[in-house]
Sequence to fold (315 residues):
Amino acid sequence: MTREEIFAVIKANIQEIIPGARGKEILESNSMRDFGADSLEVVEVVSRSMKQLRIKVPRSELLEVRDLKGLLDVFEKAAAQTR
Amino acid sequence: MRLVLLADQGQPPDLLLMRLSPAEREQAEQRWPAGCRRRQFLLGRLAAHRAVQRLLAGRVPPPSIQVLSGPAGEPRARVDGVEGLVSVSLAHSGRLALACAWPGARCHTGVDLERVRPTDVAHSRYAFSRRERALLARAPEGLALAGLAAWTAKEAAWKALWPHQPVSPAGVEIRALDLERGCAVVQAPPGRSQFEVRLGLIAGPDGPYLLSIAQLTQYAAQNPYAGDVNHE
Fold:
């Protein structure tokens, strides 16, 4: 799974779960808070994306994620390990 | 400490904006030029104004109060242009906003509010540790409501940790949860600060809402949800 494929899954979930992100360009440098996500929506995006990507990420790593780039980094690493 | 719960009565956003100071209006325009988040932002600011007014017992006219967002989005109250006399915590969800004001600059209290809605947050390995998920599984109120209540408790405690917060509310830990008594205990690293959280389930204009107020200090309010619901 490529980084682009992982980001496509995350972006689709952001567009679906966070009302403020609909129709907006989503970049790696963004944070979900940039689109007005509340904390519960952030949890839903992260959890749903992990489920769809069928990856397991150590919670300690997720707790340090500050933006989409950080989320992509840990997801990409987890996807590589599950290959 | 004063709590205010404010309901959105569907007023045009311009009417809500008019009650804010020019600096607050500018922040609102920059951050939320349109959409439902704009209404929630404005309602939250107005609830915070009301809480500060009540804390000061009307000694300060409303135009002297400002609640601006700090660099990380944290609310910062100013009275007559002076920051640090009063602190606020606020939350908004759906059609309600909740604000809490207390004297002084020290942050020791946080509030959160969530409209009760279908969510599987209780199953999230990101939101809750294994120990927390086991705690939620034992809640007689059911996993969905317990999960949402636990998340509001975590977020309220997380806000009270400002400016020494973990990256996410997920980084603090629920140690006890009793929805029937409306209370929870939350612990936060690295100092292992402990918070007592009061939880409440109330009827809002569009369904039930969960409220939480977390306090680090021993003077936790006996009835923190005694603040008025103002229908404006």
User: Anything to note?
Assistant: Chain A is about 60% helix and 0% strand. Chain A has a mean pLDDT of 94.
